[in-house]
Structures are given as structure tokens and as C-alpha cells.
Design brief:
The chain is α+β, with helices and mostly antiparallel strands. It is built from 13 helices and 19 strands. The relative contact order is 0.10.
Length: 528
């Protein structure tokens, strides 16, 4: 009997060892021959056990990080692939997909599977989010077809009802199309990434979007015709948007966090955006009977989704954001209302007005340094680093999106990482100066998974005004040296932006196993 037991152990022990082996995707920071990029989209997450995170919580956090990075990778690819393959040839497609990328701060990709692993020796949880491209294509092809069918039904119904003279009911049918178009934009954007954005896919997409734009223009014209309220002022525009949003959803006295609208696809605000936010909030109270709330300056975000945390802390049940687009003497304004808890689009509205209606405010639609900021953004978009395992979160006391700061406003910057690492913090000022706030700042194990800031990361808004960008890099190994010069109490980058980015983004040989991540925030500073 004893001999039988020994033989059984000899046969079962190798199997146990096999089960305990570290998966390839853990060793390689989220990459594996089992999940090649041509076939799968993936996101990698990790979280170490500490006083704040026990084993169960660390495993859940690793899954959240993996899911967040999958969404972020998809968002970055959409911006990059649409930008390089389509936008330069067709500006219509730029505005068409901007709304999709704006709403993706709460993007929940359907059909995601997870693999997990826990390392007892390191007390580290790992997770890999996996979704086959083919599965995404099938799922979102079906979603696209269903949305198009529903849009056609509402559009045709609206025409019939309008023809019978029931204008109010016809308007409801047309308005129902707007939120469906927003969902369609998101589905088509995900399809572009799932199909790997070949040139054929991009050309096909351009043709399909052109057809959707025809239908969307038809809806937009019908809405403006039936509203029967001419837009001759900014107040009229805000009234129309508020009315259209209210008519699409019975929300009662809901609380709404309104963000300043951004200029085109730049994430950039302006003096006009700041003013229009105030006007729109007033019309939401007057027309929709909603309750606009202001962001609470808090550093107590525990979610990977900072925008949702900010909205929830303010008590906002819904979030309202938007963009505005110059188009040959006119401006198209797009508003998007989302449910805070799950990011679901509940209403959307569009209006096209003469540019002089907005310029009558005397406020610029663009920040002072707009052209220089665009050049920088193109540089930032090249070879952008999306973290593989090293989670790097960056936000301000006003959140992460649609950031507009007015003279004398205070700003505090926060970061959070999931493993000990080195931080390099760059601040790109509106006057073109690139300040190195941190060359190689160490965040040790005691600060992992905790909100972290520094007295050097607290600012008061002052001139020069315009677009500014914060850029933070994280690395599991020390950073290379930088060539800087002194400007007052700060070190300023001497080399040009392109050369600097190439050295930060892994162009040099790095130690095997080195993890790196990068994140940026765009903000606009304005005079009172």
C-alpha cells in the first residue's frame, strides 16, 4: 500500500507543478504567442497585496486594471488609426468619431474574457483581458445593423407623422435618432480597430460614414425645422440643446455634471467653452428642470475610471459633455448625455448655427496658442505608450477631461501606480516652455495603490493662458538623464519634443522585463 501511494505521488506531482507554472503572459507583461495581436485585443493588469488590498481585492483590482487598459488601447488605436488613415482625406469622419472617443472614458467592451494568476511568493495578482477580434467584429456588426434599422424606423416614422401635421410627435421620432447615432459611432469605431484598420477597411469605413452623415444631416435639419425657434444668440443655442436632451429622456429633477465643450477633436477648451457651460447650465434648469452640480475637489478616487469617480463624488446621476466644430462659416455643436453609473448614452443633441452667433460673445472659440498646441498633439500621438502591467493614473482636482482653469484657480495633480516605480513629470506650458517637474521621482512600495501628490504638483492658474499639457512617464527602472537648463526654480527641457519623446518611448534598448507607461492630460487656462 505504501509503495502504491509513493508511485501515485510521483505521477501526480509533475501535474501539480505544471498547474503552478507562471503563464507566459505574466512573464512577458501581457504578451503571449497564444494571443497574437493580429487575432486578439488584450489588456494586462497587476496588483500587489498590501494593507489596503488583501488577496481577493488585489485580484479584483488586477481585473479592473486589465479591463481599463483594454479600453484605453482601443481608444488610442481609434484616435491613431482614424487620424492617420481617414481624417486628412475626410474631415466629416473626424467629427463623426470624436463623439465615440469622448464617450469612451466609460467604455465597456462586450464579450471580454479574463485569465488570472496569483503569485504567492510575490503576493501579486495578475489578470489578462482577452477579446478575439473576430468575436468583436461579429458582435459589433450585428449591433451596427440593429442600430441602423432602428434609426431608419424612427426617421421614416418621423416623416410620416410630420406629413400628417403632428409636429410634436414627429420631433420626438427625429430626436430619438440622435442617441442611436452616438451608439452607432461607437460601434463603428470599435469595428475599425477590430478589423485592424487596413487601408481597405478605412476606405470602406469612409463610404459607410458618408451614408450615415446624409441620414444624420436629414435628422438634424428636421429637428431644427420643427423646433421653430430661430437660433440668433448663444442663449437660443443652449435653450435648443437643453430642450432636445430633455425630450429624449424622462429624468425628472436629475443631477447633471456639465463639462466645458471641447473644440473639434482636440480635447481643448476655450474662453467660449467656459462661458457656454454657464449658459447651458442655466437653460438646463429653466427648460429641463435638471440640477447642474459642480465637481467636488477630491483626491479620494478609488476607481480606475476617474471621470465616473469625480461625477459620483459630486452627486451627479448624469454627465453632459460635448464638442463644437467649425464648418465653412457655421459651427456644429454636439451634446452627449451619459448615465454616470454605467456610461450609457441616454440622450444626444446637435445644432448647426452661423459662426457669427457664437462670435457675438466676443470670446474666442480657440485658445491663444491653438496652432502650436496642434503641432504638439501630433507629436504626442506618435508611438504613444499604453501601459502593459504598470498602471499609471493621472488626474487633477477637477478630474481628467474637458479641463478649463480660470485665472487664480488652484490645481492639484494626483497619480496612482500599482507597483513601485520611477516617475518623470513634464509640464508643457502655453508659451512653449517644457518644464521638468520631476526627473526621476521614486514611488516606493508604501505608496503603491494609494493616491499620491507632492507640494511641487500644486499650481495657481496665471498667464500666459492657452493650452497646456501634463505628461507623466512611469518606469520600473530608473530613467535616462535629461539635458535641461535652469529657468528660475525649474529645470526646462533643452532638446526638441520629438527627440525627447523618442528617448522616453523605448527607442533605446531597455533592460529585459522593464515596464513603462505614459499618460497625458490636456487643460486650457483662460483669463477671467
Amino acid at each position: 500500500m505504501k509503495r502504491f501511494i509513493i508511485v501515485s505521488l510521483l505521477f501526480t506531482l509533475p501535474c501539480a507543478l505544471l498547474l503552478a507554472q507562471t503563464p507566459e503572459w505574466v512573464k512577458n507583461g501581457g504578451t503571449s504567442v497564444k494571443f497574437p495581436d493580429q487575432v486578439y485585443l488584450t489588456g494586462f493588469g497587476m496588483c500587489k497585496v498590501n494593507k489596503e488590498f488583501d488577496k481577493a481585492k488585489s485580484q479584483q483590482r488586477a481585473i479592473e486594471v486589465a479591463r481599463g487598459y483594454l479600453a484605453q488601447r482601443i481608444k488610442v488605436r481609434i484616435q491613431s488609426e482614424v487620424g492617420s488613415a481617414v481624417v486628412e482625406q475626410n474631415s466629416t469622419i473626424t467629427s463623426y468619431f470624436t463623439n465615440a472617443t469622448q464617450s469612451m472614458s466609460t467604455l465597456e467592451i462586450q464579450g471580454v474574457d479574463f485569465q488570472t494568476f496569483y503569485d504567492d511568493d510575490e503576493e501579486m495578482s495578475y489578470a489578462l483581458a482577452i477579446v478575439p477580434r473576430g468575436h468583436l467584429v461579429k458582435m459589433y456588426d450585428e449591433k451596427e445593423a440593429a442600430l441602423k434599422k432602428e434609426i431608419r424606423q424612427h426617421l421614416e416614422s418621423g416623416k410620416l407623422i410630420e406629413g400628417s401635421g403632428l409636429k410634436t410627435k414627429a420631433l420626438d421620432e427625429y430626436l430619438a435618432c440622435h442617441s442611436l447615432f452616438r451608439a452607432l459611432e461607437e460601434a463603428q469605431a470599435i469595428l475599425l480597430v477590430a478589423r485592424a484598420a487596413t487601408s481597405d477597411a478605412s476606405r470602406e469605413l469612409a463610404g459607410r460614414v458618408a451614408k450615415e452623415e446624409i441620414a444624420l444631416s436629414e435628422v438634424r435639419e428636421a429637428v431644427q425645422r420643427l423646433l421653430q425657434k430661430p437660433v440668433s444668440s448663444i442663449e437660443d443655442l443652449a435653450w435648443n440643446l437643453a430642450y432636445c436632451l430633455k425630450e429624449q429622456c424622462a429624468l425628472g429633477n436629475t443631477s447633471v455634471l456639465v463639462s466645458p465643450f471641447t473644440f473639434q477633436d482636440t480635447k481643448i477648451g476655450s474662453p467660449f467653452a467656459r462661458y457656454f457651460k454657464q449658459v447651458l447650465e442655466g437653460k438646463l434648469i429653466e427648460v429641463a428642470k435638471w440640477n447642474p452640480v459642480q465637481p467636488i475637489e477630491s483626491n479620494n478616487s478609488r476607481e480606475f475610471n476617474i471621470s465616473r469617480s469625480i461625477a459620483e463624488a459630486a452627486g451627479a446621476e448624469h454627465m453632459l459633455k460635448g464638442s463644437y466644430w467649425k464648418q465653412q462659416g457655421k459651427v456644429k455643436v454636439i451634446a452627449l448625455l451619459q448615465k454616470t453609473s454605467d456610461g450609457k448614452i441616454v440622450a444626444s443633441a446637435e445644432m448647426t448655427v452661423d459662426e457669427q452667433v457664437l462670435s457675438s460673445s466676443g470670446l474666442s472659440l480657440e485658445p491663444q496658442n491653438f496652432q502650436a498646441a496642434l503641432i504638439d498633439q501630433k507629436q504626442f500621438g506618435k508611438d504613444e505608450v499604453v501601459g502593459g502591467g504598470l498602471m499609471l493614473e493621472l488626474w487633477t482636482n477637477k478630474g481628467t477631461e474637458d479641463l478649463v482653469f480660470t485665472r487664480e484657480d488652484t490645481m492639484t495633480v494626483y497619480v496612482r501606480v500599482n507597483v513601485p516605480c520611477h516617475i518623470r513629470f513634464m509640464y508643457h506650458l502655453a508659451n512653449g516652455m517644457r518644464v521638468v517637474l520631476e526627473k526621476d521621482h521614486v514611488i516606493d512600495q508604501s505608496k503603491v495603490n494609494m493616491v499620491y501628490t507632492s507640494p511641487r504638483w500644486m499650481f495657481t492658474c496665471d498667464a500666459p493662458y492657452g493650452v497646456e499639457q501634463m505628461q507623466v512617464f512611469a518606469s520600473s527602472e530608473p530613467f535616462e538623464s535629461l539635458v535641461t537648463e535652469k529657468w528660475g526654480d525649474y529645470d526646462v527641457l533643452k532638446e526638441d519634443l520629438g527627440k525627447f519623446l523618442s528617448t522616453q518611448r523605448g527607442m533605446k534598448m531597455t533592460k529585459q522585463g522593464t515596464m513603462r507607461a505614459e499618460t497625458r492630460l490636456v487643460l486650457t487656462t483662460v483669463e477671467k
